[in-house]
Write a structure and sequence with these properties.
The complex is a heterodimer.
Chain A lengths: L2 H11 L10 H7 L3 H25 L5 H26 L1 H7 L10 H9 L6 H31 L1 E2 L4 H4 L8 E2 L13 H26 L1 H10 L1
Antiparallel strand pairs in A: 1-2
Chain B lengths: L2 H6 L1 H49 L12 E4 L11 E8 L2 E11 L7 E7 L5 E8 L51 H19 L1 H4 L10
The chains are: A mainly alpha, B alpha+beta.
């Protein structure tokens, strides 16, 4: 499997958020602003790449009976390490992400990639897959976070100082006044509605692309009919 | 899982157990190393955070003690909004208590407890109020956060007599404090929580503003 295919899988064809619909709980819960989406997305990305690396290195040597247990242990340890590091160096972000940071452990995306892909592949492929899947997840989180923040608060990236430090207070744009925002976009129903809309748009787009790719001959025959 | 094979080969089961044990040891090792490495930094961050919040809520008051260490335990389910024993901080200048910080809970929020930090001076005047933790509706109720609006500064300089007790309410209830469009419950809870904290300060003034036992710093 070449690197291009792995990247395309993670970002498009088997995108964890849009196509596989894995890890929806953090996806829907944390995507209320660009900053928190970016924070959780990056944390998940780091855990995915690292756990895939360990799975690729140790996978072949771990007996099948305990493989799942070993991976869960490793992932839990890594998530705890990431959580402690965030608490130490980005305390505000740590507080903003709250319970969803330790809950990366339960993101089935991480375990699924380690078990079904990384443990059967060479190290570079596994790490690349972790990065690609993490990036795919991050992109969906960001898209949802940006649209919810924009619709709900009329701003984009207004909380970025949580991520970048107090020097960035007031970074981001206020596109329209917060008072005319749609509150539902920030609430859980809004998350479901927006994700549903995005999924529908994505499906329509890929269907259109498939039709276009299915040879101009088909279009021509339809035209003659 | 193919248990029959495991039964047939006890060596295999032992190996599996050994690998699992090794993984557990490695995981614990990783967590404890990271924990040791980050602990001082986490403590420093938390301290800095608390100190920054404290400085912000005190406004321009000058002090020379360490309010984070100069604490007393307070408990009053009726006025402080919770059964828990809460921490109050004394803020002193040359041994004289110039302000008291109370951690209180404002009951009746839309999404559960709203935790407030309330700073009052010896005259029972508010130096400032900050929302420490809340679960109110985003974009509707979270205007009580200082980073979102300056609503919370409406308490600065107020006391139990200003406005008079009957007007310690949101405007909708006939009081002096603004509510937000679409959200009355949240500001109402905060106003009540702050007023109760001031009542508590008035009732326990002696104890809260007691003179320093330790000698004053130079």
């Amino acid at each position: 499997m070449d690197a291009r295919a792995i990247l395309r899988d993670g970002l498009f064809d088997r995108n964890p958020g849009f196509v596989q619909l894995l890890g929806l709980c953090p996806l829907l819960a944390v995507s209320t602003s660009v900053a928190s989406a970016l924070g959780l997305g990056l944390a998940t990305l780091a855990v995915l790449a690292a756990s895939n690396a360990v799975a690729a290195l140790a996978g072949p040597r771990v007996p099948r009976e305990v493989r799942l247990a070993v991976f869960v242990l490793v992932i839990a340890a890594m998530v705890t390490a990431v959580e402690l590091s965030l608490a130490a160096w980005w305390p505000k972000l740590h507080a903003a992400l709250g319970i969803f940071l330790p809950l990366i452990v339960t993101n089935c995306l991480v375990l699924a990639r380690a078990e079904s892909f990384a443990s059967r592949r060479p190290l570079p492929d596994a790490v690349l897959d972790g990065l690609a899947m993490g990036l795919g997840f991050l992109v969906v989180l960001l898209a949802l976070g940006a649209s919810r923040e924009l619709l709900g608060r009329g701003s984009l990236g207004a909380d970025l100082d949580l991520l970048l430090g107090p020097g960035y207070t007031g970074a981001g744009w206020q596109v329209f006044p917060e008072s005319s925002g749609l509150v539902i976009a920030l609430l859980p129903p809004g998350a479901f509605l927006l994700l549903g809309l995005m999924l529908a748009l994505g499906r329509a787009w890929s269907a259109a692309r498939r039709r276009a790719a299915a040879a101009p001959g088909l279009a021509a025959s339809e035209a003659t009919r | 899982m193919d248990t029959h094979r495991t039964d047939a080969a006890p060596g295999r089961a032992l190996r599996a157990a050994a690998v699992l044990a090794a993984a557990a040891v490695a995981a614990v090792a990783l967590v404890s190393v990271v924990h040791e490495r980050t602990r001082p930094q986490i403590e420093a961050s938390q301290r800095a955070e608390r100190l920054a919040r404290l400085t912000s809520v005190l406004g321009g008051v000058a002090w020379d003690n360490d309010p984070l260490a100069d604490t007393l335990a307070v408990r009053d389910p009726e006025l402080l909004g919770t059964d828990e024993t809460l921490v109050a901080h004394r803020v002193r200048l040359r041994g004289v208590t110039v302000a008291v910080l109370l951690n209180v809970v404002a009951p009746g929020g839309y999404g559960g407890a709203i935790r407030l930090l309330v700073a009052a001076d010896p005259q029972g005047r508010l130096l400032g109020v900050r929302v420490v933790e809340h679960h109110e509706t985003p974009a509707l109720g979270d205007g009580i956060e200082e980073r979102r609006t300056d609503w919370v500064h409406g308490f600065d300089g107020r006391s139990l007599g200003d406005p008079p007790p009957a007007r310690w309410q949101v405007r909708k209830d006939g009081g002096d404090f603004d509510q937000f469009t679409g959200a009355t419950v949240t500001p109402r809870a905060v106003v009540r929580g702050v007023r109760n904290a001031l009542v508590y300060v008035e009732r326990h003034r002696e104890q809260l503003f007691a003179a320093a036992a330790a000698p004053a710093a130079p």
